[in-house]
Amino acid sequence: MTFKSLSDEVRAFRAAHPDVRYVDLICLDIPGHFYGKRYPIDMLEKVAAGSLLKLPQNCVLLGAQGGLHEIGDYCFNDGDPDAIRRLIPGTLRPVRWEQQPLGQMLISSDGTDSPIEFEPREVLARVLARLAAKGIRPVVAFELEFYLFDRALKDGLPQYPRDPLCGDEDDQPNLHIERLSRFSPVLHEIVEVANEQGIDANVITAEIGPGQFEINFGHCEDGLQAADWAALFTRLTRGVALKHGHRSSFMSKPYLDAPGSGMHVHVSLYDEQGNNLLALDGGTPLRHAVAGCLDWLPHCMPIFAPHHNAYRRYGSRVNAASRASWGYEDRDACVRIPDSDARNLRIEHRLAGADANPYLVLAAILGAMEHGLEQRAEPIAPLSENRQSGIDFPMDMLAAVAQMRHHPEVNAGLGEEFVMVYCENKRQDHLAFMEHINAREYRWFL
């Protein structure tokens, strides 16, 4: 439903949900966590009517554990200034999984007079605006894999989820439809709550890992909204899972002996007349777009694999590449071309982990496709012609950051300030992670 104004949207929400007293105003930071504030709903009406909404600018720079890193002049040398945020129309929705009635609404600095250059949503908004100025309209669909775990940890480690009916562990994973039936209460409510949030979540698949599932979204003609859906889906999935006695995680590789979880992104490009640009001239633009994706991929690895665990997913025996590659109907490829008619011709970018930031993943994919269309280069051989075809990409965070930091096309496409901030955030997060000595090191070397 669309409203004439934000005030109308808030009033309609209050009328439909009179028991809601508070609304969480939320935005995604660089590591992919939501930050924000909980507002009384009567104050939300004032914000919708024009009162300024401000939060510290540096909330966007939070590390993976919530602390601040010193990055350039930010955080410790800038006085921690506030920055204006705006409410995102159409995102005020009820929250079903909390104990008390609650609402939530997305906020962003994009579209304000002084957007934060390194805010993930703003990075994507700039890429989409540049494509729109060229008459290019992306249509996007995300697919997200995730794991369910038992609520209780054992020695700090996750445990397989248990069948709510018989209490058995989900320790014999497969693609059988019966696994959907065993976990249907939590899976169906995840989809229902997603739909209440305005997310077109639909198909549910049992994946190969223990407690692993995938839920797909419909194709969306608004790239920002498509990424909003993916971001909001991760929050609601965790909340609904806890309500049903499970933990949930989009962690890239929670078990070394089971498949990782990916974020697959389908992208088509259309012109203003509705023609699929990738299908023109016998599919030549499709090959150019693929070449751009493969060219950028080694230089965007900190986005696709944003932390140490994410690199454990690559090189798996199950549909997780270790080199940049492409192919038709080939799930071993980073860039897969699904079988389709010319109207729906698209790429499926399969490299990102499920815990990557969806705004940044989509921005990197679209920037790479734009680069390829402009360069008009031909891609390397597809895997169907040569199973060894591929381009090496870095397999650890420090090498990945070094390869992204000064790449001219990535800096130009995503923004120099963003690339600097993002790379330094990831570098410092990685160094902080490596400062901890785990039990295995003591077992090996004491």
UniProtKB/TrEMBL annotation:
The UniProt GO MF terms for this protein read: glutamine synthetase activity
InterPro entries annotated for this entry?
Gln_synth/guanido_kin_cat_dom, Gln_synth_cat_dom, Gln_synth_gly_rich_site
- Entry annotated with the keyword Magnesium: yes
Q: Which residues form the GS catalytic domain?
A: 120-446
**Lineage: superkingdom:** Bacteria
Q: Which Pfam families match?
A: Gln-synt_C
Task: For this UniProt record, give its keywords in alphabetical order, as a comma-separated list.
Answer: Ligase, Magnesium
List, separated by semicolons, the cofactors it needs.
Answer: Mg(2+)
Gene Ontology BP terms:
glutamine biosynthetic process; polyamine catabolic process
Family statement: Belongs to the glutamine synthetase family.
Q: What is this protein called?
A: Glutamine synthetase
Organism, as annotated: Phytopseudomonas punonensis
